C-alpha cells in the first residue's frame, strides 16, 4: 500500500478507486481492439490488482478455471519476485482482444465496484514490497488449490478468495486485505484437509480390493 500525500490533489494523483480506473479504461480504450500490453501500460503498478481480479472472476467458471488459474500464476510469481508491474510473454501481451468484450465487462463491473467501495477503501497503509510478496505467495497457494484439488467445483471458493484479495489490494484497504489473507489461509487449511481425507479414502478403497 502506498502512503498518502498531505494534500488532496496529491491524494488524487496517487490513488483512484477501481471504479474510476475502469471508467478511464473504458473511455480511453481503442475503438476495435486492445492488448494486454496496452492495459498494463495504462495501469502501471496497480495493474497487478486489476489483472488478478479479472482472472479470478474468470476462474470461477469451471470450463476456463484451469486456463485462468495458470495465467494467474504469472503476476503472482512476479509479485513475489518484486516486480513493479506484471509482464506477460510477448505473444500474449500483443495479442489483439475485442474492445467490446472489455467494454461489456467494465459496464457490468463499475456499478458493483461503486457499491463495494462504500466498504472497501484506502486505510491501514502497508509496505508495498512486503505486501506484494505476501499477496503473491497466498495467490500462488490458492491457485495450486484451485488447479489440483480433486473435488468438483473446488475452483469456486479459491477463485472467490483470490478475487477478494485482489480487490482489497487494488483498493489499498490494508484492513480488509489482512482479513482476506486470513480467509485465504483458512481456505487453504480446509482444502488441504479435504485432499488428505480424499487420499486416505482412496487408500482405504484400494485396500478393500
Q: If you had to describe this structure to a student in words, what would you say it looks like?
A:
There is one protein chain. With about 210 residues, the chain is mostly helical. The chain is about 70% helix and about 0% strand. It has ten helices and two strands, in the order ααβααααβαααα. A two-stranded antiparallel ribbon has the order 1-2. Helix 2 (about 20-30) runs antiparallel to helix 7 and helix 8 packs parallel to helix 10 (about 175-209).
Order of helices and strands: HHEHHHHEHHHH
Terminal Cα separation, in Å? 56 Å
Query: If you compute it from the alpha carbons, what radius of gyration comes out, rounded to the nearest whole angstrom?
Result: 18 Å
Low-pLDDT parts are 1-13
Q: What is the helix tally?
A: 10
Overall shape: it is globular
Q: State the secondary-structure class.
A: mainly alpha
User: What do the pLDDT scores average to?
Assistant: 81
In total, the number of strands is: 2
Biggest sheet statistics: 2 strands, antiparallel
- Which percent band covers the strand fraction? under 5%
Q: Helix content range of the residues, please?
A: over 70%
Please state how the strands of the largest beta sheet are arranged side by side.
Answer: 1-2
